[in-house]
Amino acid sequence: MSPTDLLALGRLAIKRAHFYSQLRTEQMRLVDIIYTAFNGLIYADIAGAAEMLALEESVLNGMDEFMTDLTTQRLRLISSKGLLKMLQGDIEGGYTQAMSVVPAYEIAGMNKMSEFTKKQAELTRKEILAGNPRNIPHTYSMLI
After folding, report:
1. What's the confidence (pLDDT) of residue 23?
2. What is the pLDDT of residues 41-93, one digit of tens each?
3. Which of 75, 83, 87, 88 could serve as a FRET partner for 47 with CA atoms 20 to 30 Å apart?
């Protein structure tokens, strides 16, 4: 599947999910659909990945945070924005942003997520600085 196909399917899924997004569970599913599309695009279509992150942020900001716990999704968004920044050329700024969520994961006792985020940011930074962005380990979401 090409990045263009993935972006088109992501947009279609998001459009259809908006129809049902009044329900709390469906709002969370919409965020997960967007994140899955982002994960599929980040290494192949940076502009499409940026579009998905902007959409995810918009959806999260529009949700009632008292009705739905969005902490994990917001932390994931911050980390994803950092990875995107690194791939767009702001390596140190992106690395700092991606790593900024690690203490929150540690405080919450989410040690596996903390370690995963650290490794992902460190490996991405290392490979970009070495001039080998194709060697960045690709991690794809399987949320759908």
Report:
1. 59
2. 888 889 999 999 998 998 888 877 766 678 889 999 999 999 999 999 999 99
3. 75
Task: Summarize pLDDT for 86-122 with one digit per residue, the tens.
Answer: 999 999 999 999 999 999 999 999 999 999 999 999 9
Would you mind telling me the total number of residues written for the chain in this entry?
A: 144
For the chain, how far is it from start to end, CA to CA, in angstroms?
16
> Which single residue is written with the structure tokens 């405080």?
107
Judge whether 48 and 41 are in contact, CB under 8 Å.
yes
Query: Is residue 85 within 8 Å of 93, Cβ to Cβ?
Result: yes
For 138, counting Cβ atoms within 10 Å of its Cβ (0-12 exposed, 13-18 middle, 19+ buried), the class is exposed
